[in-house]
Amino acid sequence: VRPHKTQNPAQAGDGNLLVRDNSSQLCADCHALRTHSSQYSSAAYGNRTVNCRDCHTPHETRNIYLIREQIPTPADGLKDVVLYNLNSLATGTGVGLCETCHTQTIRYKSAGHDPGANGHNVGANCSACHKHQEGFKKAVTSCNTCHNDPPQKGNHYLHYTGAEPTVYGDVTNGSTAAAYKFFCGKCHSGTHQNDTTHDGATAAAAKVVQVIFDATTAPQNPGAAYAVGTAQPPEQNASGLWFSWSNGTCNNLYCHSNAAPRTPAARTGHLTEYKSPRWMDIATSPNCTACHQGAAAYANMVYNAATNPGALSDAHWKHAAGDRYNLGCQRCHNATVGNNTTVSDKSKHVDGLKNVAFDNTGVFNNTGGSYNAAFQCANTYCHSNGQSLTPPFGSSTSAAWNAVAPLACDSCHAGNAANTNKMASGKHAQHINNAAVLGANYKCSQCHFNTTSAATDTIAGYANHVNGVKDVAFDTSGGKTNGTGPNWTSPGTCANVYCHSSGQATPTYRTVPSWAAAGTVLNCKTCHGTETGGLWGEPRYASGGPNLNNSNSHAKHVGAAAGTANCGLCHPATADNNGALMTNTATHTNGLREVAPGGAATFTYAAGKTCNNVSCHNNAGGVVWGQTAASSLPTCLSCHGAAADTND
C-alpha cells in the first residue's frame, strides 16, 4: 500500500502513513535522499538542520509529494506554499517551495525579500539541477558551469592549461611537459563560495575571489599569502553571479622562489628567497632568473649574508659560473630544461623536487650518471679519472652537493706527489713521483700549464678542465725554451720540449719515448752527455768557443773515478760529485744553468762565462769557459808560475 495521498493521481495512496513517531526515520527507511541541511548543501549562509517533516506531512495537504501547505521558515514564521506541479517549485512570487525560506540567495527569495527570478530558469523544474539526492545542492558537472575554467583574467592561463577540472578543491599538480596544470585548489584551497558578505547579484555586491594556497601537496606552500592589490572591474559568470578580484601579489610561495638551495648544514643565513609577482604584470612566462639566480661571474654568485643571501647552492657557483666550468643547466637537469633559459618539461619544474638528470651533449656523455639520496653524483665523466669520454665511468662518485670543502685533484683522478692518490697512468709516475731521478717531483703545471696554476698546482684554466680533452701545454716560465712544431702528438709523445733536451740556452731536443711505452728508464746521459766518451752525463759536444751557446769545457773537469764526476764543484745545488741529482733540487730542468762554487772549490763566476779567483787554478783569474784558441788556453804556468810553486 502506498502511504502517500497527493493531488497527483499517479502518486495516489490510501492516505494512511505508518508513523511510529514524529521524526523523519520512517522517511529514511525507504528514501535514500538528503535533506536541505547545511551538512549536505552549503554552509555559505550559516549552519542549519532540516528534517523531512519540516517540509512533508502525512495529512491534510493538497500539494504533491506531501509538501506542507504551510512551512515554518527560519526568518518569517509560517509561510504559505503552493506546489501542484514541479514547475512551480520557484515562481518568482515568493510562494514556491524553493523560495519559501530563502532570504540571502541571489534569486528566488521569499516574499518580502526581493523574490525576483533575476532571469534564472523561469518556469523550470528546480530539482532537475538541484537534486533531492544531493540535499538540493547545485549539481556541478563542470567548473565551467559557473565561471570560465580556467578563468581568463590575470595569469590563469600560465598556471593552468588543459582539460577543465571537474572537482572543486583539487590540489593536484597535473602539469605536462608542454604546460603547467595546477588545479584550482592549489591557489583557492577551501575557498569555494564562502564569501557570505556579498550575494553576488550585482557588480556592486560582487563576491570576493579568495586566494588561499595549498600546503598539503607538492609543491607545498605553507605560510604563503596573497596580498590584495589594485581592484579590478568585477566579472559576471555564466549563471549571473558577479565576482570581484584585484591585481595583488603572491608572497612566500615555493612556486616563485629560488627553490630552497641545498646548502651546508652549518650555514643558517642562506635564505629561501621568495619573489612576489603581481598577478597581471607578467605578459609571458618569466625567465629563470626571475625566481632563482642564473650563471654569472663566480664572485657574483657566491653567498653573502648582506649582499647575496639567496645565492644558489655552493656547488652551483663552481659548476655554473662563467669564469669557472660554465656548465649549462641542461648538463645536470636535462629532463627539466633544454638550456639556461628554456624549461623543456614543465611537469618536472615547480614540483617540489630537485630533478637531476644528466645529458649527453658536448664532448662527453653523462646519460649513465646518477644522483643519490646523499646528494652525490656517480658515474659521470665530470667526476671520473678522465680516461674515457663514454660511460660507464666506473666508481666516480663526487662529494655531496652541500659539502663545504672543495674537492682535491685525487678525489676524481689521482694527483701529484703531495696527494694521497698519486697519478700513475702513462708516464705520470716518472714525472710527478720520481724525485730520486729528477731531483724534484714535477708539478702538474709542467705539462698542463694552461690548466693548472704553476704556483699552487690547482685548477686555473677552467675551460681546459673537464672538457673531454687531455690538454697538454708545457711550462715556458723562466728560461725553459720549447722548440717549434708540436710539443705533444697523439697517441702520446712529447717532442721539442725543454725538459727532454741538452739544457742549453738554445737546446738540442732529444727523442722522447712514447707516453704509453713500458720499461724505458732515462738517466742523465739520455738528455745531456749523450756524446761519445760521456761518463756521468756531462756534455761532450765540441766547444764552439768562449761565451757561446755551445761553449764547453766539461771534459777537462770530469774524472772517471768515483767521486770525480765533480758536478758538485760547480753545480752544488743541482748534483753531487758522484753525478747524482740533489734531493728536492729546484735547479734541474728550470731553464737556467746555475754556476756556483761547491765542495772544496772557490771561485767567482762572471759575465762572459768567465771564472775568477779559481781555487783549482791557484786562484787565477780570467779562466774562460769553452776557450778553444791555443794562445788563450791556460798553461801549467798559468797556475804554477810563482817561484814557490816551482818544482826542480
Task: Walk me through this protein's architecture.
The chain has ten helices and 14 strands. The termini are far apart. The protein is rod-shaped, with a radius of gyration of 47 Å. The longest helix has 7 residues, at 314-320. A hairpin with a 3-residue loop joins strand 12 (604-606) and strand 13 (610-612). The protein is low in regular secondary structure. Mean pLDDT is 84; it is low at 5-16. The strands form six sheets. It has a three-stranded mixed sheet, with no helix packed on it. A three-stranded antiparallel sheet has the order 12-13-14, with no helix packed on it. The chain has a two-stranded antiparallel ribbon with strand order 1-2.
User: What sequence of helices (H) and strands (E) makes up the elements?
Assistant: HHEEHEEEEEHHEEHHEEHHEEEH
Total strand count, please? 14
Which descriptor suits the 3D outline?
A: rod-shaped
Share in β-strands: 5-15%
Question: Helicity level, as a percent range?
Answer: under 10%
Query: What order do the strands of the largest sheet run in, or round the barrel if closed?
Result: 3-6-5
Tally of helical segments: 10
Integer-rounded radius of gyration: 47 Å
Judged by helices, strands and strand pairing, the structural class is: little secondary structure
What oligomeric state do these chains adopt? single chain
Mean pLDDT: 84
Summarize the main sheet.
3 strands, mixed
List unreliable stretches of 5+ residues.
Answer: 5-16
Distance between the termini: 165 Å
